[in-house]
Here is the input.
Amino acid sequence: MPKIAQIEYFRVPPRWLFVKITDDVGNIGWGEASLEGHTQAVEGCLDAYIERYIGMDADDIEHIWQFTWRIGFYRGGPVLMSALSGIDIALWDLKARKLGVPIYQLLGGKVRDKIKVYVWIGGDRPSDVTIQAQARKAQGFTAVKMNGTEDLGWLDSPSALDDCVERLKAVKAVGMDAGIDFHGRVHKPMAKQLAKALEPHRPLFIEEPLLSEHPDAIKALSQLTSTPIALGERLHSRWDVRPFLESGAVDILQTDITHCGGISELKRIAAMAEAYDVAMAPHCPLGPIALAANVQVAAATPNFAIQEMSLGIHYNAGSQDLTSYTHNPEVWKVTDGYIDLMKGPGLGIEIDEEQVRRLSKGAKAWVSPGFIGPGGEVREW
Here is the structure.
């Protein structure tokens, strides 16, 4: 059996963390362990994992996952699970490349030949969305997502919600579907109002209308609107997801493959969601490895609905983009709202290792932005 011989990680612009695993006969696999704003914490966790995993059987993906989850006593959470994600994705890539097949063939085979996608417009303070929506339509997209609001107070003026409704109407007028991301920055007194105001204009979904630390409030809000409720990027395992499925509070799960334990756990979460008639729309404002891993799972997931991708997202401005770090960026070409399923082995992308190593030198960790209210108080970003 091939043994893990080397695990490396690379901090690369704009805010990604790549993982490379090499076995003792030279097979390699790439993963992504990006955790926006907490790169150094994940790197520290990976340092500990590297010491443990050298010499383990690279084929034993599930054993390594369970070893990571259960042996450490403390488990779960964004840092531990993001580090595990990088390892898990890289092991799946290594194994599938060694066998010469796409990862989805090891997940039971494909149920679709192309993947529906959406992309971001606007930014943290969204504006000019009509022009941006038109540009995305010209790129081949049929759906977009945008932040609903700028920063809000716990109880703010109702007029602070008006711009969000007008932006949705403007994007719909271009002929695009639009998801509205509340981003967890809207508290209950305002979220109830915004959900009701948006409903007549039929957004594709409303995302994180409240933070997932308030499950009862999310359930109550879901009963006030017919708009699909989407969340999940801050739920890091099937155990985190379970109460939201059991309560019926969520319609669309947006699990992040780089924060939940990788391909192994995303596939399990998707199967759980299917039993509750909940769709999967994985969160992925990240790099090409994360997106490729999502596509491999989506190919084999019956209840997959739509995939977020980071092409041209505002976080990438002035830096590398989704098409960086690979030799075959053409796999991300969008036609009529879809990308074709990759057919190459493993993740289906070919990493430009020279570029990864070169741009990782001196790369700084991305720092999450924040909002300060007019009284000097910290607000949710």
About this structure: The CA atoms of residues 101 and 345 lie 4 Å apart. The chain has a mean pLDDT of 96.
